[in-house]
C-alpha cells in the first residue's frame, strides 16, 4: 500500500513541477514538517475516527484503517514562511480510542504525545526532533 502512495505522490510532485504550479512540490518544506509513523502492534484493527491539521497542511494524508500488525505514515508541512505545523489524529479500536498529537512550532520546542482510553500501550520513538521531525508511535 505504501508503494502506491509513494508512486502517486511522486507522480503528483512531478506533474506539479512540470506545470509550474504552486503546491507541496514547490513549497518551502525546509521550514517545518512532521512525518509520523503509526505501527499497529496489537491484535486489533485501527479505524481513523477524526484527524485535523491545526497549523500548516497535509503533505501525505493518513489511511482510514490500519490492520493489526500493519503500519501507516503521514506527513504535515508548514504552509507559510516562518510557520510551523501541528495537528492530531484519533483512531478507534474494539477497546477504545487513542489520539496522537504533534506540535512543531516555529521558534519553540517540538511536542509529540499519545493519549489513550483503550487498554493499549502507546510508545513513541523520536527519530528526528529537528524542524523536519520524524516520530514513530507503536501501539500495542
Describe the protein:
Keywords: Signal. Residues 1-27 form the signal peptide. Residues 1-27 have low confidence and may be disordered. The longest helix has 18 residues, at 2-19. Helix content is 13%, strand content 50%. With 140 residues, the protein is mainly beta. The chain has a single domain, classed as Mutm (Fpg) Protein, Chain: A, domain 2. It has a five-stranded mixed sheet with strand order 3-5-1-10-9. Strands 4-2-6-7-8 form a five-stranded antiparallel sheet, with no helix packed on it.
Observed structural traits:
50% strand; 140 residues; elongated; 1 helix; mainly beta; signal; Mutm (Fpg) Protein, Chain: A, domain 2; five-stranded antiparallel beta sheet
Q: Reading side by side through the largest sheet, how are the strands ordered?
A: 3-5-1-10-9
Strand runs, count: 10
Mean pLDDT: 84
For this structure, the CATH topology is Mutm (Fpg) Protein, Chain: A, domain 2
**Tertiary shape:** elongated
Low-confidence stretches: 1-27
Going by helix content, strand content and strand pairing, the class is: mainly beta
Number of domains as seen in the coordinates? 1
Main beta sheet: 5 strands, mixed
CATH architecture: Sandwich
- Which strand-content bin applies to the residues? over 45%
Number of helices: 1
Q: How far do the termini sit from each other?
A: 21 Å
**Level-1 CATH class name:** Mainly Beta
Order of helices and strands: HEEEEEEEEEE
Radius of gyration: 15 Å
Signal peptide: 1-27
Keywords: Signal
